[in-house]
Design brief:
31% helix, Aconitase, domain 3, four-stranded parallel sheet, globular, 3 domains, alpha/beta, 17 strands
């Protein structure tokens, strides 16, 4: 009998029962909720007179709609204020603890869960947000769900699920200087396309992955869904255990040691079978940047925009040409040196303390270009506190940057931090779809280091030229 994958081991422990010729009833350890995808779910419970199954397994915080300036004041935008107020009411009515605005634990759900020790190896986690896959970095099965499913989990702590196929992606070797986890995942999506992971849950493995910090692993798992995958995960190891140890909601003392004994069993067996497997050389990965309107349209920053004539499929060629037209680029263009007026460092992909340390390292002793407006947005109140405790604020402010307050910010056009039509933004977020950062905005995805270098020069820059 073939061995089991990491995914199989976690999945099997959480199957409550199997419906004949149907899906499995799948138990969920933790559900994260925010203000955007939960209101209709709570309304459904009210209409049916159903309580929340277990309020202790729900973690709530507002993030998408919140302003990132003057959070102590009432929210000015009517829709945003209404959604945040509704979350407050729903949590109060159903007895769920809320990390609301100005609470020391408030922030983006996928930043808050790990830093508080709520996210732990071997768990199943869901949220009405596609980037729930972030938590897979801890060796979890974590994925986004729809609003009706949010209601299902609130009511039963279970979901109806069909088991996805398994894929493993190995990255072996050492990364070059100036290459970060964001470059790894953009490289992989460019190789496998934005649909290459459809139907799969991806395990990321190999020596280059094992060498990464937890923050870096979270960035990779966060964007696994941008290649169409259901989610991504990484086997827990000493790096994982050391990160979790001592955090607010992590097991303490002897309980922690006992937990680690169990967590050490979470790995793919040597003879485990994956339906698909790929291996890449870390040395081939360079700083990456996107040029189109999906995360798979990425190139090494030193390369030229590809030629649409090289695409065989006519429909794909049309889609490619449409993306270039929207972005104002042409086949063969070199992106280095293109003027950029907006830079965004933040989002559930890259708004952890490590990301701001990287930015500070690049900008120290330098000045931001006068033409650049930069959004520097920590992912949580805890990260914000660290930025000031470590003196990163002084480095950034000396370079002309303003640090804002926690929230999803300019990742998506649901709050005040929008990019104007026609403007380019080098962004550390996860999506570059048309209008994602504002109607007509043009997004180029990159690492925090590339974003910082671009902010200093005022044009797209290879960070290796600055470090």
């Amino acid at each position: 009998m073939a061995g089991k994958t990491l995914f199989d081991k976690i999945w099997e422990k959480h199957v409550v029962t199997t419906i004949p010729d149907g899906p499995e009833v799948f138990y969920i350890d933790v559900q994260y909720i925010h203000e955007v995808t939960s209101p209709q779910a709570f309304d459904g419970l009210r209409k049916r007179g159903i309580p929340v199954f277990n309020t202790k397994q729900i973690v709530a915080t507002p993030d998408h709609n919140v302003p990132t300036l003057e959070q102590h004041l009432p929210i000015k935008n009517d829709l945003s204020r209404k959604q945040v107020d509704q979350l407050i009411k729903n949590c109060a009515d159903f007895g769920i603890e809320l990390y609301g605005l100005n609470h020391p634990y408030q922030g983006i759900v996928h930043v808050v869960g790990p830093e508080l020790g709520i996210t732990k190896p071997g768990m199943t986690m869901v949220c009405g947000d596609s980037h729930t896959s972030t938590h897979g970095a801890f060796g979890c099965i974590a994925f986004g769900i729809g609003t009706s499913e949010v209601e299902q989990v609130l009511a039963t702590q279970c979901l109806l699920q069909t088991k996805p196929k398994r894929m493993r992606i190995n990255i072996e070797g050492e990364l070059q200087k100036g290459v970060y986890s964001k470059d790894i995942i953009l490289y992989l999506i460019a190789k496998l396309t934005a649909g290459g992971g459809t139907g799969y849950f991806i395990e990321f493995a190999g020596s280059a992955i094992r060498s990464l910090s937890m923050e870096s692993r979270m960035t990779i798992c966060n964007m696994s869904i941008e290649m169409g995958a259901r989610g991504g995960l990484i086997a827990p190891d000493d790096t994982t255990f050391n990160y979790v140890k001592g955090r607010k909601f992590a097991p303490q003392g002897a309980d922690f040691d006992k937990a680690v004994t169990e967590w050490k069993k979470l790995f793919s067996d040597a003879d485990a079978v994956f339906e698909a497997e790929f291996t890449y050389d870390a040395a081939d990965i360079a700083p990456m940047i996107t040029y189109g309107t999906n995360p798979g349209m990425g190139i090494k920053i030193s390369e030229n925009v590809p030629n649409s004539k090289d695409i065989k499929d006519v429909k794909e060629q049309e889609s490619f040409d449409k993306a270039l037209e929207y972005m104002g680029f042409h086949s063969g263009d070199k992106l280095i040196g293109k003027p950029v007026n907006y830079v965004f460092v933040g989002s559930c992909t890259n708004a952890r303390i490590e990301d701001f340390r990287i930015v500070a390292e690049v900008v120290k002793g330098r000045q931001k270009a006068a033409n650049v407006k930069a959004y520097i947005v920590p992912g949580s109140k805890q990260v914000e506190k660290q930025i000031y405790a470590e003196g990163i604020d002084k480095v950034l402010e000396a370079a002309g940057f303003q640090i804002r307050q926690p929230g999803c910010s300019a990742c998506l056009a649901m709050n005040d931090d929008k990019v104007p039509a026609g403007e380019y933004c080098v962004s550390t977020s996860n999506r570059n779809f048309e209008g994602r950062q504002g109607p007509g905005a043009r997004t180029l995805l990159a690492s925090p280091a590339t974003a910082a270098a671009t902010a200093i020069n005022g044009y797209i820059t290879d960070v290796r030229d600055l470090i």
